């Protein structure tokens, strides 16, 4: 296994076409718990095609949902990077929204390796993807950090050392996002069909007591909590959201998110209260419009 830094960083960007429908968006919202109390609060902006808004984190799954049929989720084929995929972890995720995503549409996604950092015993691969509509107008940019165990020591730069410092005061608000035992089973219909999130035997073989929730599900749950709890339910006001995945969550557990306001910037930390506030998302920030 090896990393050729020059080839990885100078390769031609890869492009692919994606499309999605209102059904994909509705399923995504339902997989994050929208409409869970439909008898008293149906959350129609998330659950009904009339006046449907799109949670910006839908960008994480656009083109992979039910309208994609049985097409496989795009694999991780990166030029200049030959690594053991069994040793990688999704370490961090960022999203910047350039324009609110439509409830249905098509886009061209352009992806490139933006950086590769040498952490000694591991490498961090930074993969950047931008989706643009048919007129070439950018809709969103995502940045994924991939932690590759055993792939460091290739002589690259270590990358930034970002501190996880939190404000030295009580949070301005605390948001809670409950999950259900079936949450991962629903969320995986967005495209990530990894058996780790469904098969108890597979999960035990991977070192977990039972199937775990997708990291991107936690990411979406917290984004929805921000929109509902701080932005008057207006998803278009969430402009950017960045996190590191610090721990797993079991379906049925709760995500507790402490939020510190700093003008249009939010600092966040998400934990699991059922496990003594074990960290779930750290180094987390969001940018919001007034």
TrEMBL record:
| Pfam families tied to this protein | MaoC_dehydratas, MFE-2_hydrat-2_N
Superkingdom classification of source: Bacteria
Under the heading SUPFAM superfamilies, the entry gives: Thioesterase/thiol ester dehydrase-isomerase
Q: Name one GO molecular function term.
A: enoyl-CoA hydratase activity
An individual GO BP term: fatty acid beta-oxidation
Domain annotation MaoC-like: ranges: 165-267
InterPro entries on file: HotDog_dom_sf (IPR029069), MaoC-like_dom (IPR002539), MFE-2_N (IPR054357)
Q: Report the transmembrane regions from the record.
A: none
Q: Where is the Peroxisomal multifunctional enzyme type 2-like N-terminal domain?
A: 20-150
What family does this chain come from, according to its entry? Belongs to the enoyl-CoA hydratase/isomerase family.
Q: What is this protein called?
A: 3-alpha,7-alpha, 12-alpha-trihydroxy-5-beta-cholest-24-enoyl-CoA hydratase
The record lists the organism as Saccharopolyspora elongata
């Amino acid at each position: 296994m090896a990393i050729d830094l020059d080839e990885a960083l100078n390769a031609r960007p890869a492009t692919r076409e994606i499309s999605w429908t209102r059904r994909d968006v509705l399923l995504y919202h339902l997989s994050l718990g929208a409409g869970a109390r439909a008898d008293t609060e149906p959350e129609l902006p998330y659950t009904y095609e009339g006046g449907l808004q799109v949670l910006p984190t839908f960008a994480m799954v656009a083109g992979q949902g039910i309208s994609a049929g049985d097409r496989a989720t795009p694999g991780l084929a990166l030029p200049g990077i030959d690594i053991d995929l069994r040793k990688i972890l999704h370490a961090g995720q960022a999203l910047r929204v350039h324009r609110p995503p439509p409830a249905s549409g098509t886009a061209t996604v352009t992806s490139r390796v933006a950086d590769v950092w040498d952490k000694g015993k591991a490498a961090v691969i930074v993969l950047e993807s931008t989706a643009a509509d048919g007129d070439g107008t950018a809709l969103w940019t995502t940045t994924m950090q991939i932690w590759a165990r055993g792939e460091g020591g290739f002589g690259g730069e270590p990358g930034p050392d970002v501190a996880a410092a939190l404000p030295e005061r009580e949070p301005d608000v605390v948001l809670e996002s409950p999950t259900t035992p079936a949450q991962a089973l629903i969320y995986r219909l967005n495209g990530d069909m990894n058996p780790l999130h469904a098969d108890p035997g597979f999960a035990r073989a991977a070192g977990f007591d039972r199937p775990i929730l997708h990291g991107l599900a936690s990411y979406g749950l917290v984004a929805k909590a921000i929109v509902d709890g701080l932005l008057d339910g207006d998803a278009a006001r969430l402009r950017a959201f960045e996190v590191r995945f610090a721990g797993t969550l079991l379906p049925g557990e709760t995500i507790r998110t402490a939020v510190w306001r700093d003008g249009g910037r939010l600092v966040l930390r998400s934990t699991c209260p059922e496990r003594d506030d074990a960290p779930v998302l750290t180094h987390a920030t969001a940018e919001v419009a007034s």
